[in-house]
Specification:
The chain is mostly helical and about 140 residues long. It contains five helices and no strands.
């Protein structure tokens, strides 16, 4: 039998779990906002605060955010002292809540098509699951 038994499982480590979640969250935010800033600076995106209505630009933003969300949840799972999938999905749940709040604000301010922030929120848990699965492929 491969793997650890219950007696061999690593002890709980709240500080390390917290740092794993923070590292994943920071990775997502820094990568997302950094890419946004580069695309704004290059003139690909309109200036900050102006609506971005072009479908192609919203699809571009959604595509790299899906990758970054998956990576951040992967990172949280890899750094987790135990239960990597639980850490990835916990970060995904946080992403869902924050993205849902962001979606409500973006829709109210008419910053672009409503489908973009809605899809961003709805993709939070699937990308979290994928990140957790990539971090620990022996489990599902």
């Amino acid at each position: 039998m491969s793997g650890m038994t219950i007696a061999e499982a690593p002890p709980r480590n709240l500080p390390r779990s917290t740092l794993a979640m923070i590292a994943g969250f920071v990775a997502i935010v820094v990568l997302s906002l950094g890419t946004d800033q580069i695309l704004h600076t290059l003139g690909i995106y309109p200036p900050w605060g102006q609506p971005m209505r072009e479908t192609s630009l919203n699809l571009l933003a959604l595509s790299y955010r899906l990758v970054y969300d998956t990576f951040g949840c992967y990172l949280a799972a890899r750094l987790a002292p135990r239960h990597p999938m639980r850490h990835a999905l916990g970060l995904g749940a946080l992403g869902f809540v924050l993205s849902s709040l962001g979606a409500a604000g973006a829709i109210m301010q008419d910053l672009g098509p409503a489908w973009y922030p809605i899809l961003l929120a709805l993709s939070s848990l699937p990308t979290a699951w994928l990140g957790g699965r990539l971090a620990d492929p022996s489990r599902s």
